[in-house]
Amino acid sequence: MSDVLIRTEGLRKEFGALVAVDDVSVSIERGTLHSIIGPNGAGKTTFFNLVSGTIKPTAGRVYLDGDDVTNIPVHRTIHHGIGRSFQITNLFPSLTVLENVRLAAQATGSDGFRWWRSHARFTDYVSRAEEVLTQVGLVERAFDIASNLPHGDQRKLELAMILAPDPEVLMLDEPTAGMAAEQVPELIALIRDVQTSGDKTVVLVEHNMGVVMNTSDRITVMAQGAVLAEGTPDEISANEEVKVAYLGSLYEDLG
Amino acid sequence: MSLVDLATTRKPWIVRHRLLLLGVLAAVLFPFVIAIVVDGAPISAVWENADGNAKFLQGLAIEVVVLALYAMSYDLVLGVSGLLSFGHAMFFAVGAYSLGILLKSAGLGLVPSLLIVMGIAVLVALLFAVVLPRVKGIGFALVTLGLASVTGIIISSSEFKDYTGADVGLQGVPSPDWLNPTDQRFRFYLVSMGVLVLVYLLYQRLVDSPTGKVLVAVRDNEDRALMLGYSTFWYKTFALIVASMTAALAGSLHTLYQPIVTPEVAGLGFTVAALLMILIGGVGTVSGAIVGAAVFRLTEFYLDRWFEGLSNLLIGAGYILLVLFLPYGIVGTWRTRSNRIGEGRSRLARLLSGSKGE
C-alpha cells in the first residue's frame, strides 16, 4: 500500500521567459529516501525551493499529507514538518555551533518572545541541541564559531540544524557538495541512519551517482525542467532515456 | 559535565554584575567626592544643590545618561539586530518634543505625559516597521533617513511655532518642582542614574533572552532565521519598539533637563552621534553604549574647552585611531582581549602607505 506524504501537482515555475520547472507531478512516499537527479539546469533546486516554500510556483500545487502547503510563508514550512538544507552552506557564521543548533531547536517552540528570561533557563533546547550534535558527531566542537569549522563539519552542522526541530521530512540539497570524497560515505551513512531510525522521509538532490544508486528507495530523474523517469535504482539504471539524457549531453560536448 | 551544564551554568548575579555595582557606587559617591575634594565644601552642599563643580559635573553626567540611553537603543537596532537605520534620531526627537508639548501646551502632569510619550514611541516604531519588509539594507537606511528628515522639517516649520518653537527651539517647558534640574540637581542626577541602570538591566536581559538570540540570528543571516521558522519581521518590529521607547525616554530626560530643545535632535548628525558612541563603546555590546556615551560627551566637552577651534580636528583624529587600534570598540575589545597594539600599528602603517593588503 502506498502512503504518499508529499505530492506535487502540475508544478510550474517561470523566471521570465525561462521555464525552470515544467508541469512536475511527483509523489513521495512516507518513510522512503527519494532522490532527485538530473543534469545541471534540470530544475532540481527550483523544484526543491517550490516544495519547501522558498519560492512560489507560477502554477500547480504542493500537498503535504493531503494538506495544501503551496502558498504558506517560508517561516511556516518547518511548522508543517519540512526541514530543508541548502546546496551552499547556510549557517549563522559568527555564532557557535551550539547556538546554531539551539536556535534551530528553539524555532519550533513557543518561547521566542520570552524576552524577560535568560535563554539559559530554557534547557530543553540546549539538551535537544546536544542530542543532535552527538548524533552528527560535532559535540566536541560545540563552542567553536561556525565559520571556523572545516567544510565537512559545516555540512554536518547544516544537517544538525535540520534535525534539531525533528521534522518529518528532510529535504537535502546536495548535502555532500564540496566534501572530500572520503567523508561522503560517513555523511550518507548518517543520513540513512537518521532516516531509518527516526522513520523520516528524506528527499535528496545529489550528483554523486554511487551515493544515489546505493542509498535511494526511489529515484526521480529530471531533465530540462520536466520529469524524465521515475523508479527504483535498478529501473533507473536500466532506463535508456536516462542514459541518453546524461550521456547525450556529454556526446554533444565532445562534438 | 554535560554540554547542557556547560552552556547554561552561570556565575552568580552579583559576580556577573560586579562592574555595574561598582559603577553605581561610584556614581552615588561622585558628587560628594567632588564637593569635598574640588570645591572644598561640606557634604551637605550636594543635597542642598549649592553651585560649584559638584553641581556642574552632575549636570554633565546627566547629559551622559541621556546620550547613553539613546546610544543603547541604537545598539539594539544596529548592533544587535543588524538593522541599518539612519533615522534613529527621530525616535529621540519625537520623545523630546512630545513630552515638551504635553507638559507645556497641554499642561499635563509628568507621569501621564510620559505614558502618552511611550504610546507615541510605539507608533513611531510601527511606522519604521511598515517599511521593513519592503526595503532592506541601504534602502531601509535611506527611507528611515527620510522619515527623520520629515520630522525635522515639521519641527522647524513655522506652522507649528506655537508648539515646537520652530527653528529657535522649544523653551519654557515646565518641570515639576520635585524634579527641577537646577534646584533639585542631585535628585535629578540620582533619578537619571536609576533610569539608566534599570534600562541597562532590562537590555542585558533582553539580549540574553530567546528573543535577543533570534535578533542576533537575524543580524547574522536573516534568510536562515526565516527558514528555521522564525517570523523575523515581528522580531525586528519588537526591537524597533523597544528601541523607540528607550530613545523617547532619553529624549524626555533631555527635555526635562535642558532649558531649550533644538530641532538638531532630529537631524542626521544626531543619528551619526549615536553611531559614533556605539563604535567607541563596541557595537552590539549594550554596555559599550554607556562607555561610548561617556567618552563621546566628555571628550567633546573638554577638548572644546581646552583647544576650542581645534577640537573637531582632534576628535576626528581620535576616531581614526580608535578604529585602527580598537576596531571592536572599548568594551568589545576588552571582551575579546584582542587589543594587540602591534595590529593597530600595522593597520596604521598600511593606511599611511596606501596598501590594501590585509
Short synopsis of the structure:
The complex is a heterodimer of chains A (255) and B (358). With 255 residues, chain A is an alpha/beta fold.
Describe what this molecule looks like in 3D.
The complex is a heterodimer of chains A (255) and B (358). Chain A is an alpha/beta fold. Chain A has a domain of 134 residues: Rossmann fold (3-Layer(aba) Sandwich). Chain A contains eight helices and eleven strands. In chain A, a hairpin with a 2-residue loop joins strand 10 and strand 11. In chain A, helix 2 runs parallel beside helix 4 and helix 3 packs across helix 4. Chain A is globular and about 60 Å long. The model of chain A has no long low-confidence stretch (mean pLDDT 88). Chain B is mainly α and 358 residues long. Chain B has a single domain, classed as ABC transporter involved in vitamin B12 uptake, BtuC. Helix content of chain B is 74%, strand content 1%. Chain B contains 17 helices and two strands. A two-stranded antiparallel ribbon of chain B has the order 1-2. The model of chain B has no long low-confidence stretch (mean pLDDT 90). The chains are: A alpha/beta (255), B mainly alpha (358). Chains A and B meet through helix 2 and helix 3 of A and helix 1, helix 10, helix 11 and helix 12 of B.
> Any idea what the shape of chain B is?
globular
Distance between the termini of chain B: 40 Å
Roughly how many Å is the radius of gyration of chain B? 21 Å
Q: How does the helix and strand content of chain A classify structurally?
A: alpha/beta
Mean pLDDT of chain B: 90
What is CATH's topology name of chain B?
Answer: ABC transporter involved in vitamin B12 uptake, BtuC
Low-pLDDT stretches of chain B are: none
